[in-house]
Prior knowledge:
Helix content: 55-70%
Pfam families: Y_phosphatase (PF00102)
Radius of gyration: 13 Å
Organism: Didymodactylos carnosus
Number of strands: 0
Protein name: Tyrosine-protein phosphatase domain-containing protein
InterPro entries: Prot-tyrosine_phosphatase-like, Protein-Tyr_Phosphatase, PTP_cat, Tyr_Pase_cat, Tyr_Pase_dom
GO molecular function: protein tyrosine phosphatase activity
Amino acid sequence: MQHLLVSAGVGRTGTYIAADIAINYLHDKTFDKLANTKLDIMGTVYQLRLDRPRMIQTKDQYLLVYRCVAEYLKRTGKSKA
């Protein structure tokens, strides 16, 4: 189990949690199934914000979630890029 400690527990913590949720969602998908998979990062953040407002506070934090997902897909061979 990993632990992440920050003062407010929203910006960077939300970034980590959103990336983790997205990657776990994609983890069990095969390359063929990814074409039909919808990954809704903004929807995920919305759901997180229902419990803790201000999860992911900046555009850069959103971009980092997308970059983490892209890197995961690249490293696992689930991406054409």
